[in-house]
Amino acid sequence: MESAIPQQIRAELGQILSNLVLGDNEIRRSAEKVLNDKWLANQPEILLLALAEFSRQSPDAHMRAFAAILLRRLIFRPPLHAVPPPHPHQALASSKTTIYDHLSEATRGSLESILLAALREERDQSALKGVTETICELAVGSFERKRPFPELLSTASQLAESGDPMHRESAFRIFTNVPHLLWDQNPQQVVAVLESALKSTESTSVRHAALKACAVYLSSNDPGLQSQTVGLMYPVLVALSEFAPADQTKALETLTSLASDYRTAGLFRPHIETLTRLMEPFLNEQRQVDATATPTLANPGLPQFVWPPTGPAPPMDEEEALIERRWMPQQPPP
C-alpha cells in the first residue's frame, strides 16, 4: 500500500514519536507540545494516518506498538480546536463529538484498511496486541455511530482459522471486545468456531481468549440467541477442567460475570454436577486449612476478615478494563 503521507512529514512525525519515548523529560514535553499544537490541533487526519502507517510499517516492533496505542488514545479525544456545528441546533451534540467524528469518510476507511493490514501482517506479540486493541476501539466507535465495518468480520474470521496462535488469539480478542460481530451471525456457526478454539490442543492463550469470547457472547440479553447458544456451556466447562491448575483460577474468573448475573446464571443450572466436580479441587484446598488450631504469636492462623478492604486494589489489565466497561452485564440496583 502506497503511503498517503509525504516522506518529509513521515520523517518529522517519526522523530516526534521517538522523542516521546525518551527518558529526558524536557525533550518529551517538547515533543508532546509539537504533537498537540501543530498536528493534533491543526492536521489531525495526517497525524492519525501517519500513526496507522507507523503501526504497520515501522521496522521497530516497539515503535509499531507505540504508534498503535497512541492512535487509539487520540482518535476519540475531543478536538483541540472548537469545530463550529453546521446548524445552531446541533451545538450541544457538536460539543460532545470527537476527532473521529470530524474525519473524512476517506480517512476513516484508510485507517481501517491500514490497521487491518497491520493486523494480518504483524508477527510481534506486543505490537499485535497494540494493533488489535486499536482496531477494537475503532470498531466500537464506528458501530456506536451506526457506521458499518464489514471488513473486520471477514478479517477476524480468517485469523480465527490462522495457523499462527498469536493471530488466533487476536481474533478472539476482537470477538470479545466487539461481540456484535458474533451476535449478528448464525449462532450454530459461531458456536462451532468458539467450541473448536476451546479444545485442549490449542495453546493456553488461545483457549483463554476464546473463553472470554464465549463469556461475552453468552452474556447477550436476547432470549432467542440464548436458547440457541446454551449448548456452548458444556464445552466451556470441559475446557475449564482441562486448563492446567496454574491457569484454572484465571479461567474461572472469566465466567464470574455470567454466574453472578441473574439473566445468565441459569445457563449453569443444567451443569451443576459438572461444575461441582470442577470445583472439587478448590474446595479440597480449603478443607486442608486447619481452622481448629489455636492462634498463637508464632502461628496466628488465617488473617481476620476486614471490610472494607484496605490497601490499593490490584491493577486491572487494560484490555480487561475495556471489556468490563463495555460489555459485562451490570447487576440490577438493590
From TrEMBL:
<dbReference type="GO" id="GO:0005737">
    <property type="term" value="C:cytoplasm"/>
</dbReference>
<keyword id="KW-0813">Transport</keyword>
<keyword id="KW-0539">Nucleus</keyword>
<dbReference type="InterPro" id="IPR040122">
    <property type="entry name" value="Importin_beta"/>
</dbReference>
<keyword id="KW-0963">Cytoplasm</keyword>
<dbReference type="InterPro" id="IPR016024">
    <property type="entry name" value="ARM-type_fold"/>
</dbReference>
<dbReference type="InterPro" id="IPR011989">
    <property type="entry name" value="ARM-like"/>
</dbReference>
<keyword id="KW-0653">Protein transport</keyword>
<feature type="domain" description="IPO4/5-like TPR repeats">
    <location>
        <begin position="126"/>
        <end position="276"/>
    </location>
</feature>
<dbReference type="Pfam" id="PF25780">
    <property type="entry name" value="TPR_IPO5"/>
</dbReference>
<protein>
    <recommendedName>
        <fullName>IPO4/5-like TPR repeats domain-containing protein</fullName>
    </recommendedName>
</protein>
<keyword id="KW-0677">Repeat</keyword>
<dbReference type="InterPro" id="IPR057672">
    <property type="entry name" value="TPR_IPO4/5"/>
</dbReference>
<dbReference type="GO" id="GO:0006606">
    <property type="term" value="P:protein import into nucleus"/>
</dbReference>
